[in-house]
Amino acid sequence: MIVAEKVYLKPITVDEAIRFAKKYAGSFRYIAGGTDVIVNKFQGNDASDCLIDITGIEELKKVIKDKKHIKIGSLVRLDDLKTHPEIRKLFPALLEAAHSVASPMLRKTATLGGNILCENRCMFYNQSEWWREAVGYCLKCDGEICIATGGKKNCFSKFVSDTAPVLIALNASLEIADGEKEYILPLEEIYSGDGMKPRLLGNSAIIKFINLPLAEEPSCVFKKLRPREAVDFTSLTTAVSKSIKGKIRIVLGGVDPKPILIEGMANEKDELIKQAIKKSRIVDNDTYSRPYRKEMISVFLEQSFEKLNPS
Ligand SMILES: Cc1cc2nc3c(=O)[nH]c(=O)nc-3n(C[C@H](O)[C@H](O)[C@H](O)COP(=O)(O)OP(=O)(O)OC[C@H]3O[C@@H](n4cnc5c(N)ncnc54)[C@H](O)[C@@H]3O)c2cc1C
Ligand code: SF4
User: Fold this and answer.
1) What's the burial of 8, exposed, middle or buried (CB within 10 Å: 0-12/13-18/19+)?
2) SS3 per residue for 145-212
3) What residue owns the CA closest to ligand 1's atom 43?
C-alpha cells in the first residue's frame, strides 16, 4: 500500500531539522534529493508519516577546503561535484562513481549525503506491493523467511551506494549533528552489516559534511558491474586506493549488506583479493548470479591493481 506522508516540514537550519525529527520520532524521514525516499514510498517500502525536507539548509550545500580536508556538504548534488576544480583534480574516482549513479536527470537532484545513505536493495524486496504479496513477503517486509537464502534469521539486502566505496577507499569521514552532539566518524563505521537495519546512525542524526583528507594523496580506481550503463543499480562496485606510501584500501559494494573494507600493502595483492572474496556474503538476490559476481570481484580487483601498479 502506498502511504502518503501527513506532514511535510522544511527547516532552514540543522538544529531546526533535528528538533522536528525529535518531535516526529519514529515516523519521519529526512528527504534531500528524494530520489530514493520517494521511490520507496511509492513502492510501499516506507510508511513514514512525516517528511522533513532538508534542502533549505544552505550550510549543507557548500564545499570548503581547509588545511587538512576538502569538506563536501551533504546536500551537494552528484552532478555538481564536477563543478569544483579541486574535487576534479584530487579525487577523479569520486566523480566517476557519482557519474555512474542512476541517470543524468536523477544526478541533477540526488545528493552525496543521500547517496551514502540510500537504502539497501534486493530483487525480492524492491518490487511492487502486489509482487511482494504474490511471493509471500520476506523477512524485510513482515514475512517469515528470506526468499534469497531460505533462512529465517538474516537479511542480506545489498549495500548499493556507488560513491561510498570510493569515499571509504579515500579515507573519508563524516561530520554528524545529532541534537546537542556533533561528532566525526570514519564513513565505514555507520554501516551495520544487517540487511534489515543497515545503518547505525542515530534516528535524528544529520550528516553535515563528508570530509576527504588531503595529506594522503591516494590514487584510486573505481569499477561497477551492471547490466546497462545507466539507470541500473550495481551488481558489484569496487574501489581500490593506493597511498603514496603504498598502503592499499579495497572497498566492495553490492555484494554484502555493508561495504567490505580490506587493508594492506601494495605487495600483498593476491592475499588481499582472497580476503575480499572471503569476506563478501554474496547471495542470489541480483540479476547476475552469485558465482558470476564472485568471479568478477577478482577480475575487477586484478584490473584495478594493474592500473595502480602498471608493470
Ligand atoms: C532509477 C534509479 C536508479 C538509481 N541508480 C542508482 C545507482 O546506480 N547507484 C546508487 O548509488 N543509487 C542509485 N539510485 C538511488 C538514489 O537515486 C541515489 O542513491 C541518490 O544519490 C540518493 O540521493 P538523494 O539525495 O535523492 O537521497 P534521498 O532519497 O533524499 O535520501 C536517501 C536517504 O538518505 C537520508 N538522508 C539524505 N540526506 C541526509 C543527510 N544529510 N543526513 C541524514 N540523512 C539523510 C534520507 O532520510 C534517506 O533515508 C537510483 C535511484 C533510481 C530511482
Ligand atoms: S535478502 Fe532476503 S530478507 Fe533480505 S530483502 Fe532479500 S529476500 Fe528479503
Assistant:
1) exposed
2) CCCCCCCCCCCCCECCCCHHHHHHHCCCEEEEEECCEEEEEEHHHHECCCCCCCECCCCCCEEEEEEE
3) 206
**Domains present along the chain, CATH in parentheses:** 1-56 (3.30.43.10), 58-213 (3.30.465.10), 219-308 (3.30.390.50)
Q: Is the pTM of this model over 0.90?
A: yes
Cα 222–chain centre separation: 14
Q: Which of 139, 153, 256, 258 to mutate to test the pocket of ligand 2 (most atoms within 8 A of CB)?
A: 139
Radius of gyration of the chain (CA): 19
Report the b/e string of 281-295 with b at 16+ CB within 10 A. bbbebbebeeeebee
Q: What is the DSSP letter of 77?
A: B
Per DSSP (E only), the strands in the chain are: 7-9, 28-31, 50-53, 63-65, 69-73, 173-178, 181-186, 206-213, 219-225, 236-242, 247-253, 260-265
Ligand closest to the CA atom of residue 199? 1
Q: CA dist 265 to 44, 79, 237, 277, 308, Å? A: 45, 33, 21, 17, 12
In whole angstroms, give the CA distance from residue 212 to residue 61.
16
In eight-state DSSP terms, residue 249 is E
Q: Whose CA is nearest to atom 27 of ligand 1?
A: 114
Selection from 93, 27, 94, 13 nearest residue 55 by Cα: 13
**Residue 152 CA to ligand 2 centre (angstroms):** 10
Q: Which residues, including other chains, have CB under 8 Å from residue 219's CB and lie 6 or more apart? A: 241, 242, 308
- Torsions phi, psi of 174, nearest 5? -115, 140
Q: What angle do CA 194, 235, 243 make, to 5 degrees?
A: 80
What are the average pLDDT values for consecutive 10-residue runs of the chain, which has 311 residues? 76 97 93 96 89 98 95 98 95 98 97 98 93 91 93 96 98 94 97 97 96 90 95 97 94 98 96 98 96 98 93 65
